[in-house]
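Title: Request for sanity check on Rod shape-determining protein MreD prediction

Description:
We are preparing a figure and want to confirm that the structure record we downloaded matches what your pipeline produces today. Could someone re-run it with the sequence below and paste the raw structure tokens into this thread? We only need the token string, no images.
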Amino acid sequence: MDRSTSQLWTKRGLYLFLAAVIMFLHLLPLNTQPDRWPFPDILIALTLAWVLRRPEYVPTLLVAVVMLMADLLLQRPPGLLAALVVLGASYLRSAAPGMRDSGFAGEWSTVAVAITGVFALNRVILAILSVQQAALGPVVIQVVLTIAVYPLIVLLSQNGFGVRRASPAESGTLGARS
């Protein structure tokens, strides 16, 4: 196995490990009192950051499996948020090549639109299906906090885990078959 294939599978395993750690920490009962502020959805921010930085590290099937597992473990309606995150990730995956020259502000605003769209569609679909939901205020705070934590996730991914944007030379060879 060559170095690039080994690195690809290592990063996919790292994403799966980080997703499991995030879900584990989310399920861990650290406090018996209800939270005053909703916690940002770090798993969605991590997924979207990696999709924009290196889409080959987080294929669509892996995103779907991880998000479906999160839906099941966190007792959300199974598959709804997973499907919406897959749609958001697919949108960002298709927009990633054009965003290479836009800078971080353009990337952050595009991710903010995707995160807002995921949460808004989730709320609308749940309302149409008459499913009981949390109040709108905490959900809006969670969206804002998720958007606010995105730069930290990108910084950690880039400096801690080596998930950087592909250079133009690398992006030309990524889809090539030998």
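Thanks, this matches our download. The chain has one domain: 3-25+37-165.
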